[in-house]
Amino acid sequence: MASSTSSATAGRAYLAASALGALNTANARSPLRRQGIGGLLGFGPGWLTSELPLHAVGWQALGTLGLARRGALRTPAGLAGLGLSVASWATLVQIYRESTGAGVLVDQALRDGLGEELDAGRDPLAPDESVPLTRRELVAGPFARVKRRYVQKGPRLSYGDAGRRNQLDVWKRADLPSDAKAPVLLQVHGGAWVIGNKDQQAMPLMAHMCDRGWICVAINYRLSPRATWPDHIVDVKRALAWVKANIAEHGGDPDFVAITGGSAGGHLSSLAALTPNEPAFQPGFESADTSVVAAVPFYGVYDFTNRDGTGRADMEPFLAERVFKATLTEARDRWDQASPMSWVDADAPPFMVVHGANDSLVPVEQARAFAAMLRAESKNPVVYAELPGAQHAFEVFQSPRTHATVQGVGRFLAAIRAREGQHTDL
């Protein structure tokens, strides 16, 4: 039996741990800060907890059990800690329940943006989109490894001469015929233009699309500070040119290529979609076709100049030092040219813009403004899905919110295929 001294120590430790857990739960519920260093520091814990709330209950409960065995609950401090933990667990369960409502919100966003075209893209023989996550999938959320099911081992594929930063993976079902002419989705990873690789994002999305007969292409691209803008978008364009020239060999349709990406990848995919065949971004391959049929940016940055005040003012020093190697004042034209908002016009392809309302890295207000600009200018459909409770990079995990969102993206892209008079699934 634990001594009174050790019980008191365990009680104080449990109270401190419970207070920290409750604070993190509150941060997951609604970020304590959205700007400055506070927003950056709060992102990681809030991101993990908001997408994995039941996992958080589990590890907090294990901590409670361990300290209870040391006598923590026989002290006033320990009982106070238990009260905080119970309140935290109740809130985490509520966060989970609210995340399961994402499907209704995504469906409404699709109907608002596509109208009757949404149902025109539905294939009655396709898998049921309403199937929820299984318990096994839910538990495996942060640990699921799906790439090996879709990427065949073999020689590394390169689309340029920048070594591993110009490599890509082709994702597809093993039973996909070599002459399938499958639709293609190009995935651009995020990482603030300075980190990241093709193996870290959009795994649930690419797996879902591959299951529905699509081919997905995940790319690396050159990163700052070694790379200087516009190297990043040049690589994305070069990858698009590679896809158009080579994807038929893998069973893909070079005439139906869509693009997606998250964060910096959301910025790059949007910019690529809005600048088809732009010579400034295609040095040495100006004649290559880099157009896309649709774009699905997740939590992207859409303006570097902060023209309407919806961006983060504290991004400017970072971008100036690492990405542009010049300040906004010194190179405003280049910063403006790099901003998707600067390229919005009537010929913008169909867009589905996805953003979390709790994003503490890229303000949701900028996504709203970008979607509004597209709706005002573009002659093509614009879907804007804003997800309550979702943090930046939420769809990295296989969570109920991710599950609903990737299904929504599949329905959006199926509707765009139907607009082109093509079958929705293979």
Any overview of this molecule?
With about 425 residues, the chain is of the alpha/beta class. It folds into two domains: about 5-100; about 100-420, Alpha/Beta hydrolase fold, catalytic domain (Rossmann fold, 3-Layer(aba) Sandwich), CATH 3.40.50.1820. The chain is built from 15 helices and eight strands. Strand 5, helix 11 and strand 6 (about 295-300) form a beta-alpha-beta unit. Helix 1 (about 5-30) runs antiparallel to helix 3 (about 55-70), helix 2 (about 35-50) crosses helix 3 and helix 3 (about 55-70) packs antiparallel against helix 4 (about 75-100). The longest helix has 26 residues, at about 5-30. The chain is globular, with a radius of gyration of 23 Å. The chain starts with a helix and ends in a 7-residue tail after the last helix.
Computed Rg: 23 Å
Total individual domains = 2
Largest sheet: 8 strands, mixed
Amino-to-carboxy terminus distance: 65 Å
H-E order:
HHHHHHHHEEEHEHEHEHHEHEH
CATH class of the largest domain: Alpha Beta
Strand arrangement, major sheet: 1-2-4-3-5-6-7-8
Short description:
It contains 15 helices and eight strands. The chain has helices at residues 4-29, 36-51, 53-68, 76-99, 102-114, 117-120, 135-139, 147-150, 203-211, 231-246, 264-274, 316-324, 332-337, 364-377, 400-419; strands spanning 157-158, 167-171, 182-188, 215-219, 252-262, 295-298, 351-356, 382-387. The chain has an eight-stranded mixed sheet, sandwiched between helices.
